[in-house]
User: Fold this.
Amino acid sequence: MAKDMTLLWGSGSPPCWRVQIMLEEKKLQGYDQKLLSFEKMEHKSQEVLDINPRGQLPSFKHGNIVVNESYGVCFYLESQFKNQGTKLIPDDTDQQALMYQRMFEGLTFYDKVAAVIYYEYYVPEGERHDSAVKRNKEALDTELKLWEGYLQKLGAGSYLAGPSFTLADVVVFPTVANLFRFGLSAQRYPKLGEYYGLVKERPSVKASWPPHWLENPKGDEDTLKDV
Amino acid sequence: MGLNSTNRMWWAGAWYKTRLLCISVPLLTSFTSHNIFCLLSAVALHSETMAKDMTLLWGSGSPPCWRIQIMLEEKQLQGYNQKLLSFEKMEHKSQEVLDMNPRGQIPTFKCGNHILNESYAACFFLENQYKSQGNKLIPDSPDAQALMYQRMFEVFTLVEKLVEIVLYNYKVPEGERHDSAVQRNKEALTAELKLWEGYLKKTDCCLAGKEFTLADVVFFPSVAFLFRLGLSSEHHPVLAKYYNSLKDRASIKATWPPTWQLTPGSDMMKNI
Assistant:
């Protein structure tokens, strides 16, 4: 069970965090895990490459089974451990459809956030442009307004697909948490702020909160303060 | 006479709500035949009714649109409402699309009351809702299932690398373009395709093994798109074999992009 599972991960990385939340929700605590450092290039170490030829985190193993894509791990665990822990894919078709829709919009959301907060990681120095930074921030602003709208429509206390916490929240919450870590204004985005406040208290989220955020409660708050 | 009822018709093997006409008859004497009538009506009306409650707005050759079309064929949901739109004429930004999809993107897909504009969302939802209809596209075996999920999500990485090249001049304003970026994007796609050649060498026929699964539903359209853009079969023999072996699959043949039969492709990818 959990003892046959291994997770190699990096602190604060949304894809890694999704898997950790998932393992908590499905009551699979006790898995082997190793925290690696992106800065020290440990994601390119042999240990990772042995599980994941792409040299990326998360890297996840269950017995002989390897799944290194965070959404893939989420679907796999929900399917294999359907009757254990929280039920994360609702039977109700309205919620189910909305869950799937928001999960996959969550990828677009993550891309737009990453384009701003990881700009200097992705773009070599000689290719960076202020015009690109500006454009990425505008794209993020448009995206954020969409999500505010989605949460507004569902009403206070709601999760992304409705009254229940689902896979949509597992995969999107880490992105939202990173937004606030990097200084997003809860005044300009009150619904996202409420959602963040609601989900961060969930046991699975608290148990997997990025350790370096606990050590340094203040993040790089300048990055998103103008968005 | 008729009772329109929205019931969970479990005995018809249905896992969703069905609108059904039942003749109400005295329970004692014809309970069984009443049920059989409902069963037959459910089976007869079910596919037609459900597909007729679906609408797809799509563009020819667009891999995300094509995935949904393949899915609908695989699940025997032909007969859905559909409209072919033109990207060139900016029809994806029309009011008709925006009414269903505030992002102004296609595919835009409505399944009864449910909006599923993300192609993977539509695929998962349809597989879940029509599990016992058409082809089974998520294997039961944990190994095959895990491999299917792994490959499905790696497809996003492939698509990103493809799109970086195809849409470079569209996404990147002239003053921000760099030869170093163009070169890097080319190398990235080359490396990515080598990975997929490797994956396909290890399996029989399909991405997750012997069976055609959701992984192939989402991957095939991007592979076809690459060959449409002139990808070389000599440089990518295993991908070419995969492409040729699936081209004639019923669901794929039935949904082949109409514009591809009318116009030649390009040679953008011939040197990859």
In short: Chain B touches chain A at residues 16-17, 102-103, 111, 113-122, 124-125, 128-129, 138, 142-143, 145-146, 149-150, 152-154, 156-157, 173, 175-176, 178, 180-181, 195 (CB under 8 Å). Residues 228 and 263 of chain B are 10 Å apart (CA to CA). The beta strands of chain B are 2-8, 17-23, 54-59, 81-85, 108-111, 114-115.
